Amino acid sequence: MSFALYMLGFAFVIGGVAWALVLAGLSTQYVVIVSIILLGVAVLTGVTRTRLKDPP
């Protein structure tokens, strides 16, 4: 459940960044590229922060 909440929060961040880039007048191509990069960062950090630690 915490991973889903983490991804929801990051979706708001990605949406805000994409909106700012559109308002700044960047091409749609650049907005999509930045959004995909941020999505990858979100998945990587979300998995590492919410996964259970392996027992020794």
From TrEMBL:
<feature type="transmembrane region" description="Helical">
    <location>
        <begin position="30"/>
        <end position="48"/>
    </location>
</feature>
<keyword id="KW-0812">Transmembrane</keyword>
<protein>
    <recommendedName>
        <fullName>LysR family transcriptional regulator</fullName>
    </recommendedName>
</protein>
<keyword id="KW-0472">Membrane</keyword>
<keyword id="KW-1133">Transmembrane helix</keyword>
